[in-house]
Amino acid sequence: MVWEERWHPLRREWVIVSSHRNDRPWLGETVDEGRDMVPQYVSDCYLCPRNSRISGKSNPDYRSVYVFDNDHPCVGPASPVQREEPASSLYRSRRADGMARVVCYTPRHDLTLAELPHAEIVRLLETFRDQYLELGDRPEVRSVLAFENKGEVVGVSNPHPHAQIYATNFVFRTIETEIEASAQHLAEHGRSLFGDVIDAEEADGRRLVVQEGSALSFVPYFARYPYETYIAPRETHASLAGLSAAELSDFAEVLRRTSTLRGAGPPAYLRSNFQHGVKHLPVAWTAAD
Ligand SMILES: [Zn+2]
After folding, report:
1. Is the separation of the CB atoms in 75 and 98 below 8 Å?
2. How far is the CA of 71 from the centre of ligand 1 (A)?
3. How many angstroms separate the alpha carbon of residue 37 from the centre of ligand 1?
4. Does the active-site annotation cover 72?
5. In terms of DSSP H, where are the helices of the chain?
6. Rounded to an integer, what distance in angstroms lies between the CA atom of residue 210 and that of residue 170?
7. pTM, whole model, 2 decimals?
8. Which one is catalytic: 8, 160, 162, 185?
9. Which residues have CB less than 5 Å away from ligand 1 (the ion)?
10. Among 3, 32, 192, 271, which residue's CB has the most CB atoms within a 10 Å radius?
11. CATH assignment of 3-32+40-79+95-283, among 1.10.1140.10, 3.30.428.10, 3.50.90.10, 3.30.70.1060
């Protein structure tokens, strides 16, 4: 039994680890979500090829990854420049410029990331890389975050496999904390913090999930959930754009194989939390500035 608090070196906060509260450990079960009845195409899905979206625009007859500007962007060039100033000097506001986009992984409505062939996951990662470079080049953008919310528990009712990209004029606090922690570790030790985490996990070995060439996945010592999985290239890179073609291929394979696994518990919850693992892909591509 493990019952203690562990320091999360990236988030700089304590994590309570209490294994006795988990009925079952992560067994690395194969996904079996009973999705046999989901059709390949749904006529009223706003993400399926050829369908109309709420903006009145239509999706092309796309065959691979498809990216479009979010029809209801949280940040965007159309955000008002002139705003009502808050009455109290305590309050502040500013323009919500930036870009918000949607990334459809595949025209197939019925597939998940785990079911995509390796080559299509490579293509998806190349798309995230290209989006990072394009959006990161905009003068107003300070951070590019790609993420997938999945499952009804987080309010995403459309099962069509897709991610969102927020290119914002600020850096989210959790990412800023990771950047600060990494910079301090580098200054004090002359080494990459995340690289040292990988070294520690490989030396221990008990929490490694998938290893493939230059990439690996693991449940870190300081995981906040039993199945919180990090996926990373072994070599340190400032962003996803730094990975070679061979590294990107290994990364895609580790992502694919890790995504076919799941932990114990209610499936929707687990699926959503696996996305914390996927979200940690952006450790590679949320480098600010
Ligand atoms: Zn669809």
Report:
1. yes
2. 16
3. 14
4. no
5. 118-136, 173-189, 193-204, 245-259, 267-279
6. 34
7. 0.83
8. 162
9. 42, 45, 47-48, 109, 160
10. 271
11. 3.30.428.10
